[in-house]
Amino acid sequence: MAKAIDKNTDKSIALYCRVSTDEQAREGVSLDEQQVRLKSYCRAMGWDITPLVFVDDGYSAKSTDRPQLNKLLAKVKAGELSKVMVTKLDRMSRRLLDLLKMIDLFQEHDVSFISISESFDTNTPSGRLTLQVLGAVAEFERERIRERVFENMFHAAKGGKWLTQSPYGYRLQDKELVVHDEEAKIVQRVYDAYLEKGLGYFAIAKMLNEEGIPSRFNKEWSLRSVKLMLTNPAYKGTLVWNRVDSSKKSRKEKDESEWVSLDDCLPVIINEDKWESVQKRVNGTQIAPRAKSSPHLLGGLLKCGNCGSGMSIGWSGSKNKRYRVYRCSANKNKGTCTSKQYRADDVEKWFKEGLKKLLDSLDESLVPMIIEQKKEKYISNIQDRINVAKKRYERKVEAYSAGLITIEDLKLEKDRMKQDIKLLKEIEMVQEDQFDIGKITKDIQKKTSEILESLEVLTIEESKALIFKLIEKIILIKNSTDIKIYLRN
User: Fold this and answer.
1) Which residues of 427-459 are buried (b: 16+ CB within 10 A; e: fewer)?
2) pLDDT band at 306 (very low <50, low <70, confident <90, very high)
3) Which of 61, 234, 286, 420 is the most exposed, having the fewest neighbouring CB atoms within 10 Å of its CB?
4) Domain Recombinase spans what residues (predicted)?
5) Which sign, positive or negative, has the C-alpha torsion 356, 357, 358, 364?
6) Where along the chain do the CATH 3.40.50.1390 domains lie?
7) pLDDT tens by residue, 327-376
8) Measuring CA to CA, how many Å separate 165 from each of 168, 173, 177, 456?
9) Cα–Cα distance between 351 and 348 in angstroms, integer?
10) Given CA atoms 39, 45, 48, 52 in this order, what sign does their dihedral have?
11) In the beta sheet, which residues pair with residue 17?
């Protein structure tokens, strides 16, 4: 009688062992013990092939992004394994969805998955059924633990307790934030530099580093640390929790509707109006840090009048007579635009002349257009606020249903949402004559004068900070010496 041929006889058996730091301390789970048990099982089953051992030491089962697990899965895909063995189901993963995905991969490559504690093999129907039942129970328990942790953390946050490391400008005392006066002054300087002086993240970080002002842990300031400071709601007294998903290796911000936000529960360093004004600028049109620090006056602002692409700086002329030019980036990099290049000195001269004309001819005929732009911007901002408020209210309804907040908290959130909706309707009804035309005119004149004066005495970088406060973009009209200057709303 012919003997059946096992097509997996030349393939390896993989033993997977994992332990997290918490498990080692709490349960005394040993990697050595796992290996001994798995190898003993192989001998008992008569599998005399030397197994491959994959060990992830100190990795949580929440994520499947583990070095040795990734190597194991790569060998599965390469068709090098016949079996994958673990001591317990949760060594591989605690999430049913992740388990099922891996098992599908194993089945696709004819690899059986064996857990010796639960006594099943996925090559059998009963083994697959048992696995799914056990996985469902494991995930149910994990979700219950997560909910209990969330409830405890929510109540702590609601009581004004700070749940993580204190931000710059504060210190932590008995899990509550207190203002650190010296650092608070630096926070206020950063907000003023960004809002009043028009400096960007890079310029602010450079200013602090040059002055020798250290960050919390005596590190140098960076673009990221400055931006985090400018967008942290703690400075206006608002505690925001559950903002970041830390369950994966790469931290990712959650949808805003999932955040837990509690107003007026922290000591204030920046008043709310200033904080909101900063957010409008942060979320508005962003200029690349490199453009802000560029030694060329119109870098990051100048646009091609032919195709709308940005104009980048370059050099032209002979070896001994080189000169700066602005050239359409679409023409330079893609060849898709036929716009010519312009001498940078000429374009910057036209810009200065355009500003002088704006200052000399500014009258009330321009103001209605500016007011309409302001109305559109205000309405857009309020609509965004309403959308956020609605999502936040939905989240509070869920929290109330779960018994995490009182009916008074829910009513307060609903009132806030109604106020935003009412404000939008009021702004939509605003007429041009309700704006202070004289004040708007003087404000534009003041900022234009500041720019013209700065061009005579300040560095290019300092002048550009003022320009970015007033001007959104500059369009160079095709084949002419005319430019269009667009003011910010």
Assistant:
1) eeeeeeeebeeeebbeebeebbebbbebbeeee
2) confident
3) 286
4) 167-288
5) positive
6) 12-146
7) 888 877 777 787 888 888 888 888 888 777 776 665 555 556 666 666 66
8) 10, 11, 10, 46
9) 5
10) negative
11) 55
Question: Whole-angstrom Cα distance, residue 43 to residue 22?
Answer: 31
| CATH code for the structural domain at 12-146 | 3.40.50.1390
* Residue among 20, 293, 329, 454 flagged as catalytic: 20
The enclosing H or E element of 75 equals helix 67-77
Q: What is the CATH number of domain 159-284?
A: 3.90.1750.20
Whether residue 361 contacts residue 343, with contact meaning beta carbons closer than 8 Å, is answered with no
Q: Which of 222, 183, 192 is nearest to 205 (CA)?
A: 222
Q: What is the pLDDT of residue 425?
A: 65
pLDDT of 431 strictly over 60: no
Q: Cα separation of 460 and 451, whole Å?
A: 11
Across all residues in the chain, what is the average pLDDT? 77
pTM over 0.85: no
Q: Is 486 helix (H, G, I), strand (E, B) or coil?
A: strand
Backbone φ and ψ for 14, nearest 5 degrees, come out as -105, 130
- Residue extent(s) of CATH 3.90.1750.20 domains in the chain: 159-284
Active site residue 20: yes
Region of residue 212 (phi > 0: left; psi between -120 and 50: alpha; otherwise: beta) = left
